[in-house]
Amino acid sequence: MQERRTTDADAPQPEATAQHTPKRTPVKAAAAALVGTSIEWYDFFIYATAAALVFRELFFSPELSPLTGTIIAFATTSFGYLGRPIGALIFGSLGDRIGRKRTLVFTLLLMGAATFGMGLLPTYEQVGAFAPLGLITLRLLQGVAVGGEWGGAALLSVEHAPEGRKTFFGSFTQMGSSVGALLSSLVFLVAENLSGGLLAGWWRLPFLFSAVLVVIALIVRLTVEESPEFVAAQLKKYQTTSPLREIAGTLRGRVLLGAGTMLVATGGYYVTSSFFLAYATEQAGVSAMVMLNALTFAAVCEVLFMPLAGWLGDRWRPQYVVAVGLGIIAVIGLPLFLITHTGNATLIFLFAAIVALGTAFNYGPMAHILTRMFPVQVRYTGISLSYQVAALTAGALTPIVVPLLLAAGDGSPVLVVAYLVVLCLTATACVLRTRRFTARDGVTERIRVALESSAS
To answer: How confident is the model at residue 380 (pLDDT cuts 50, 70, 90)?
Structure first.
């Protein structure tokens, strides 16, 4: 069935004054999006790092074999992915009806509460099976928060940005993932170097520290104005009482296509980050300290490469920048794992930086690409569902599938890399298909006139 495009003719026609539309403040909006998503992803990533380093020993039965324990510890990360579509449904609908800014406050508070709670959890030695149960429950709540966070933050930055610079300003939302990963690595480095290390109880520090970061993010986020495109849609009465119904009825094909573009951003990223950490330390014998330093360096490189990807996306096509990034990841996958067996820290750092370049090019332009795919009145719901459908499939399955592929290959990473290449090829095909969407698909002409009138 051919998908029906939402057009300006579908909208109600009452007149409204555009002078109340807030002016664009792209720098402030990008900063608010960056700070908020950085904290959200910091909270999400510290769980993955802890799962790779300590959760097997702390939250699961000591009778499990090391391989089984690792598989189960990584599998618990999938509960975060199960929560993300729930968050997309709840907060996406709220964001399209009450606004981007207010919804983002809710997601930030929920994530902070869940992460801080993890830092207080008793271990398996203390409470037995209740320990992993508490861990899984809080991980699910983390997923709900992330499911509603990314879409709103992406819209806040892209909808405040002027035409011709939307990919660049949108990349600051994407940079939050890299900054979150960097903060996660740095705090774990500090905790590892404290007396006794992570297993002595310092693993709790990264989780408890998130409370401080959440307060900072809230202060910054509350200073930015609501999205001018959302307000213009309100003034023009161009809204819907049920964004999900409209998405399911006429735009579900776009959601699936958008999910396809995010397969590597959600699933492939775990292969080159958390699983790479576990493989290098357990299979290749590289010290945890070297690997944490390498991932920290890679996160710094991603932060630097992300705005470059956005800048190139505005001058070229953002889809082509993403395709280049996916190509880099596919080609570098096998060498990335093999060089860990050399034990050469310089090579590990070099290849981690190359992966960071591919990741930034793959991820940086995504906020603008997905935003262009959906009309403003259902955009929060549409892009959130696109991202989180990918999270529920590639993202949720990868932490389970990849250790099994490693076991099937008798410790060889070849099958894992083959899985990564399949994700890259599929995502490339999907992202190139999004070239048919233009700015007119995302913002109706009447709303564009309202925005231009308010700016003049």
So the answer is: very high
249-260 pLDDT, tens digit each: 888 899 999 999
Three-state DSSP string of the chain = CCCCCCCHHHCCCCCCCCCCCCCCCHHHHHHHHHHHHHHHHHHHHHHHHHHHHCHHHHHCCCCCCHHHHHHHHHHHCHHHHHHHHHHHHHHHHHHHHCCHHHHHHHHHHHHHHHHHHHCCCCCHHHHCCHHHHHHHHHHHHHHHHHHHHHHHHHHHHHHHCCCCCHHHHHHHHHHHHHHHHHHHHHHHHHHHHCCCCHHHCCCHHHHHHHHHHHHHHHHHHCCCCCCHHHHHHHHCCCCCCCHHHHHHHHCHHHHHHHHHHCHHHHHHHHHHCHHHHHHHHHCCCCCHHHHHHHHHHHHHHHHHHHHHHHHHHHHCCHHHHHHHHHHHHHHHHHHHHHHHHHCCHHHHHHHHHHHHHHHHHHHCCHHHHHHCCCCHHHHHHHHHHHHHHHHHHHHHHHHHHHHHHHHHCCCCCHHHHHHHHHHHHHHHHHHHHHHHCCHHHHCCHHHHHHHHHHHC
| Domains and their CATH numbers in the chain | 18-455 (1.20.1250.20)
pLDDT of residue 9: 34
349-362 pLDDT, tens per residue?
999 999 999 999 99
pTM score: 0.80
